[in-house]
């Protein structure tokens, strides 16, 4: 029960890495707001939590992370339902992209930046203010990607947004240290979630082969690391990137 008594907001909590992290966090004793654009699916994850025997440990909140007021409302939801906030996992995101010279900026750049980049900034800002006002400190974990540190085909906008997540993490750790807040970014490699399902079977096989042991990562494996990073056991991991890519970047 590494997270006993902690309250967390997990964005993108309705699916993939976020859903696995919700389930891990409640098992570790946390109360969790399952924050997602897809409210119906977020409510289904809350039902899963209940079915596991953790009645009242999770609450769904509809949020579009690209709208600051909605992110603020989700943080307020955590405080209203569970009384405080200790952890935010800025994890909601979209993937995909086109070759640069085929871009329509309004379609292939702006939405990616609004969700994958601005959404993390808003989470850091809203949670940071709550941590300051509570006077308790807090932990900010944000999902970057291997593509936040290297270029790749069809990932021009995605790479930019995910690189910003790493920069935000370093700056947040720097700026919020005086309030006892720590910030960490994670860089998943190839994780078997619906976001990967949009790619062809051939491409998915290629993705798996790119990790050193030739296998995709399960979302639960990422969730295990996030739970550790959120816990006091990771108290000295701050302002940095934790690679969770099974050797992809070795
Ligand atoms: P997923 O598609 O299973 O989950 C993403 C969730 O984010 C969905 O529930 C979706 O409804 C939600 N979402 C999308 N736009 C939103 C918005 N504007 N506001 C609120 N929620 C929104 O995908 P997965 O794989 O679990 O992705 C989670 C994070 O991990 C993303 O940031 C993704 O970029 C990142 N990532 C995933 C990798 C992978 O191989 N699956 C690799 C590297 C990074």
TrEMBL record:
InterPro entries named in the record: NAD(P)-bd_dom_sf, Sc_DH/Rdtase_CS, SDR_fam
Alphabetized UniProt keyword annotations: Oxidoreductase
CDD domains: SDR_c (cd05233)
A GO molecular-function annotation: oxidoreductase activity
PROSITE patterns, sorted: ADH_SHORT
Gene3D superfamilies: NAD(P)-binding Rossmann-like Domain (3.40.50.720)
EC number(s) from the headed UniProt entry: 1.1.1.-
Family classification: Belongs to the short-chain dehydrogenases/reductases (SDR) family.
Protein name from the UniProt record: Levodione reductase
């Amino acid at each position: 029960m590494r997270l006993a008594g902690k309250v967390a907001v997990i964005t993108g909590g309705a699916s993939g890495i976020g859903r696995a992290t919700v389930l891990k966090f409640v098992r570790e004793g946390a109360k969790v707001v399952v924050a997602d654009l897809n409210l119906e699916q977020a409510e289904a994850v809350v039902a899963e939590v209940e079915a596991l025997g953790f009645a009242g440990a999770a609450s769904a909140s509809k949020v579009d992370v690209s709208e600051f007021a909605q992110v603020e409302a989700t943080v307020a939801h955590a405080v209203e339902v569970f009384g405080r906030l200790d952890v935010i996992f800025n994890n909601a995101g979209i993937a995909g992209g086109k070759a640069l010279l085929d871009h329509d900026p309004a379609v292939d750049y702006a939405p990616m930046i609004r969700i994958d980049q601005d959404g993390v900034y808003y989470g850091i800002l809203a949670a940071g203010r709550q941590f300051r006002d509570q006077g308790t400190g807090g932990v900010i974990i944000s999902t970057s990607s291997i593509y936040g540190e290297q270029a790749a085909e069809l990932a021009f906008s995605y790479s930019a947004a995910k690189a910003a997540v790493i920069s935000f993490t370093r700056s947040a750790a720097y700026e919020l240290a005086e309030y006892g807040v720590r910030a960490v970014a994670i860089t998943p490699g190839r994780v078997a979630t619906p976001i990967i399902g949009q790619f062809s079977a051939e491409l998915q096989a290629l993705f798996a082969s790119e990790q050193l042991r030739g296998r995709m990562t399960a979302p639960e494996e990422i969730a295990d690391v996030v739970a550790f990073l959120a816990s006091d056991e990771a108290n000295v991991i701050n302002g940095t990137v934790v690679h969770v890519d099974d050797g992809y970047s070795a």
